[in-house]
Amino acid sequence: MAKIGIEWVKNYHGRYANLSNTKTQAERFYSLLPGTRSFNWGNDLAWDQDFEESGVGSPSTGTDSVWIDSVHIAFFSGHGGPNGPLFGVTNFDDGEAHHTEIRWGNRTLNWIAFDACEILRSNGVFDRWRDTLQGLHIILGFHSTTSDEAYRGLYFAFYLILGYTLIDAWKKACILTEGSNTQWAYLRAGGGAGVNTYLDHWHGRGWVSPDPTNSWRAYSKGSC
After folding, report:
1. What is this structure's pTM?
2. Per-residue pLDDT of the chain (224 residues; tens, 9 = 90+)
3. Domains present along the chain, CATH in parentheses
4. What phi-psi label fits residue 163: left (phi over 0), alpha (psi between -120 and 50 degrees) or beta?
5. First-to-final CA distance of the chain
6. Helix (H) or strand (E) holding 39
7. Nearest to 19 by CA among 72, 83, 86, 75
8. Contact at 8 Å (CB) between 212 and 192?
9. Which residue from 70, 61, 151, 71 is spatially nearest to 97, judged by alpha carbons?
10. Can you spell out the DSSP letters for 122-162?
11. 3-state SS, residue 172
12. Which alpha helices (DSSP H) does the chain contain, by range?
């Protein structure tokens, strides 16, 4: 079965404002979506190095081959910014999974969703995330800031089960949980024989593209 992993942060130890609903958000996704539940790391057990490639960046302590790049879909709920997701502890790398330290999809990961602000802010998005997609199909997230709410993960899983594409399921989940000032976004890779990541579905619910060769990227955003 396809594998699922989640990470979430509520307690930021004064680095950023604490959040209320990230655990509920991520665990509702994790509990509902059919598949093998591989890991659920929260608060001080959620580390930026889980998202980063070994030997890349400084400090170069990445362990994504064991965690984020060992599952088919990953979901993060917490604070974020244009450079990547933010964590509550800094003693496992530096507390930010920076885009320059990320190489996703060179093992298992097909898709990753960020219930976090501005991970996919449009300004410079292609330059920031150019090197991170190494077989990854799609990054789902937000161009704008987003609210601390408890149901987006549930709706996302629900629409995936119904047979919506990854992109449409994310849009639906965002529209149901945000106002029109919030903007969903996605970045996807393409290139290669038979590749069409735009039509990707959850495993067992429809088409899943072969891994892209990453010869091109496509980005879109829209109001919720």
Report:
1. 0.98
2. 999 999 999 999 999 999 999 999 999 999 999 999 999 999 999 999 999 999 887 777 899 999 999 999 999 999 999 999 999 999 988 999 999 999 999 999 999 999 999 999 999 999 999 999 999 999 999 999 999 999 999 999 999 999 999 999 999 999 999 999 999 999 999 999 999 999 999 999 999 999 999 889 999 999 99
3. 3-223 (3.40.50)
4. left
5. 32
6. strand 36-42
7. 86
8. yes
9. 61
10. STTHHHHHTTTBSS--EEEEESS-----SSHHHHHHHHHHT
11. helix
12. 22-32, 125-129, 152-161, 166-177
Residue 185 tokens, joined:
């976004």
Radius of gyration, alpha carbons of the chain? 16
Q: What is the rounded distance in angstroms from the CA atom of residue 13 to the CA atom of residue 35?
A: 33
